[in-house]
Design brief:
Length: about 300
């Protein structure tokens, strides 16, 4: 409850009223709301997609013989792409053949919103063109987002996917999926033979606490869900990699970072019996196709 009060306290009154209305009218809470997107500095930061991908690939290159993803001519799938098409704009500008966004809360109105086009897609277009000359005009870019990106406003298990995808991606999505093995099994069946993939998994509590594991390890998962709701599946890094392996993927798991500072709670035997302490404090990991470690 304190988390909700903290969030409400930090929002402008106009936004609080809108959020209450969304809750009351139930149906509108199942899609991303345009006003929420436009008001979110996080979502509206045009460099966000490139920053993330670039950072992930820099970390991968630090540890593995990782070759940067090349989107040219590729069929790409992103799971949980969020409100603004995830890495689709970047991938379109880098010449992908098709891009499929599987996002149950997707709101197609984002592609017709003048403010989102001017404040998000235009700076993104300028920035990515500065890095990779796409050779397409801004109008062609927006048309391509409308015509060459397939939107599946569904969860992965329900999505109708025709292609065999060359590249599959997700950014902080897998930790929100509860039947993860079933989903990975489907993902595997839709992946091309030499499919490449990056899945960033955030293993923290998603509650903005100073230590990202606060409240997580003092109780078992059932007690955690009744206290905080069922937002994250509470699988740890080795569980997730194990499910990828079980689904037939060959993977490498790269630690992005661990974080134990400020943690001062007692860890319940439920967690200590199952995991080493080192794993309990892995905050973010990147799961990719199996890649040799960077050697001498
Ligand atoms: C934490 S958000 C991350 C959004 C985006 N990738 C980003 O980096 O901002 C997780 C997203 O996954 C989506 N999601 C949750 N379960 C899903 C599922 N089973 N299949 C596809 N997407 C899902 C949610 O709707 C949400 O947009």
């Amino acid at each position: 409850m304190t988390d909700i009060i903290k969030t409400i306290y930090n929002l402008p009154p106009r936004t609080v009223i809108r959020k209450f209305k969304q809750k009351l009218l139930d149906n509108s809470s199942h899609v991303f709301c345009l006003e929420d997107i436009v008001e979110s500095p996080k979502y509206m930061r045009a460099q966000r997609g490139f920053d993330f991908l670039n950072r992930y690939q820099s970390i991968l290159k630090k540890h593995l013989k990782w070759e940067e993803l090349n989107f040219k001519g590729k069929h790409v799938l992103e799971i949980g792409s969020g409100p603004l098409l995830g890495w689709a704009p970047l991938s379109i500008l880098m010449g992908c053949q098709s891009y499929t966004c599987v996002e149950p809360m997707f709101n197609p109105a984002v592609l017709d919103s003048d403010i989102i086009i001017e404040k998000y897609f235009l700076p993104l277009y300028k920035d990515i063109n500065a890095l990779y000359d796409s050779g397409i005009s801004f109008k062609q870019f927006i048309d391509s987002l409308k015509k060459r990106v397939n939107f599946e406003k569904k969860e992965l298990l329900e999505a109708q996917l025709s292609n065999s995808f060359d590249i599959t991606l997700s950014n902080s999505c897998l930790e929100h999926i509860f039947q993860l093995y079933k989903n990975l099994d489907k993902l595997k069946s839709k992946s091309s033979l030499n499919n490449r993939f990056i899945h960033l998994v955030d293993l923290g509590n998603h509650r903005g606490t100073r230590n990202p594991f606060e409240g997580m390890y003092t109780m078992n998962p059932e007690a955690y869900y009744s206290k905080y709701g069922k937002n994250i599946n509470l699988l740890r890094a080795s569980d997730i990699q194990g499910l990828f392996d079980k689904a037939g993927f060959k993977t490498s798991m790269t630690l992005y970072y661990s974080f134990k500072d400020f943690y001062n709670e007692k860890i319940s035997p439920y967690w200590f019996d199952r995991y080493k302490e080192e794993e309990l404090f892995m905050k973010t990991v990147i799961i990719t196709e199996q890649t040799k470690p960077k050697g001498p």
